[in-house]
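Run log, item B.
One chain of 498 residues. Sequence copied directly from the ordering sheet:
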Amino acid sequence: MSAGFAAMDALVAAPLLLPLAVGLLCGVLPRAWVRPASAIGAFASLAAAVALLAVVMSQGTQSTAFGDWTLPFAIAFVADPLGAAMSVVAALMGFACIVFQLSGVDAAEESATLHPLLHLLLAGVAGAFLTGDLFNLYVWFELMLVAAVGLFIHQRGRLLQEAGFKYFVVNAFGTLVFLAAIAWVYARTGHLNFAALEGALAALPAHEQLALAAALAVGFLLKAGAFPLFGWLPASYHVLPTPVLALFAGLLTKVGVYAILRVWGDVMPGLAPFANEALGWVAVATMVVGVLGAAFHWDMRRILAFHIISQIGYILLAIALGAGEGHAAATFYTIHHIIVKANLFLIAALMVRAGGDWDLRRAGGLWKSHPWLGLLFLVPALSLVGIPPLSGFWAKLLVVREALATGHAAWAAAALLVGFLTLYSMMKIWMEGFWKPAPADAEADADGSRPIAAPAPLPIAAVATCAALAATTLAISLAPDGLFRIAQSAAAAMGGAP
């Protein structure tokens, strides 16, 4: 680390160094101290990320470098509006999911490695958002992969281990493709720093730029769960404990999307229009496949997992619409979706705890017993659909408006159609889980033929977590200008913006 490491340098690195330190600390603390240390550490990481975003929005992009080398060869961390905003939402999700875990909603036993792995995962995510070079993006990807696989196998269970194996194999393949692409980029340019790469890659022939972009995109699209590289996501996510699942759903695929946005916006802003056209059609296919998969299933975890895929398509579509408004729409949509998607998984766990079931065919009657839970579910569900004036409406409006403005009416029509089909899936959860009468066996129990097991009480901390995330969604919904200013600043700070 350089001798001149100052307070601002520490603030830039804090969103990744704090969870890294907390994760290591949780690995050595006595078991009784781990849970409070994990929660306090997660809150500290959130506070540091918020402080960094405030500095970036008031003073502009901040950066620091580790090592005794000069840029572009030093290990650089850069906090621009995009990276800082993503760090905030990542830390928020980390804090929310850890509090939810501590509430005890999920019946899964808490192993000694759970909290260290959660914080290492958060460190990897923050590092990916703040790194200033392509190779260290790979390093943070690898840290995320190690932590994620650890979270799959930290508990006994054949299903968890099988899912972890699927996740590892597919994502390891993605990282190998990414590493090969990095080697190719370095061989042709001699640089890996984002700022240096913009000029170096622009000097290459157009066809070679496209080939390098395609090589990088394969690894990123696999991480994002985009078509046709999405099969690993619904095959693995549904077996995870709920707080871990919510964290995965909210963050991990978004790191892949972020990487595409960073490459398209900063590293290769001058790509030929063909690249955006190809990415746009991949986005449309991703939206359609995801929403159809959700419509087919009855397990809430699989429904919501397929909707991750579908919503990734919207973000990719915004990226494909180009610098400026397209990239601003992608940033706005990503932040909105992280909050909404994580909250939907957490609320689904509350539904099961309240007497429901992951399989909607065996659920019902929750509106009668827990009407407030139904209202809590409607906030993120209708936001995911895009019902005005919720945050999803503003996010979809930005994407559709820009698609029409750039002459991509077919993409806009696909986005609207997928939104309609998303409504079908969300209403299926509502009708089957809340509005439908309780299953026949529950009715028999009510007649006195069998004793009724009262649903487990809902922990206040878990309910408060979901309510806080719903309130965040409502805050964005009613005052979207704040997030939109951040999104516009993020787009303007990236290379190639008008």
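Observations after the first pass:
- The two ends are 36 Å apart (CA to CA).
- The chain has one domain: 7-493.
Flagged for discussion on Thursday.
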